[in-house]
Sequence to fold (113 residues):
Amino acid sequence: MKIIKKLGSSFSREDAHGGSGGRKLLLSDKEIQNVQGMTYGYLPGGSMFALHSHEGMDEVMYVLKGKGTVRDEDGTYDYQAGDLFVFPAGIEHEIANTTDKEHEYIFIRIYRE
Fold:
């Protein structure tokens, strides 16, 4: 087999951002060039990934489940399932679950050249 297959059952859930949410590491920086990681993220109802940035890497967020808000220094933006956000390296952003249901996302962090 020349391709890589990972069974869904092999991914374990861990705390993310100090325990405000959770994630499963799907890809690591040793598996694909320029990718720092790919995670399946979880954010409980009423919680947020507080204002933070990623130095030296861009982050892509794809919303799988839920409706909430994303905030940066220019404003606050609604999100819903199917939306995609790109957070450029060094830009502070916050992700808030404004509902009482857990939200789910895919995050990909890509090193800047």
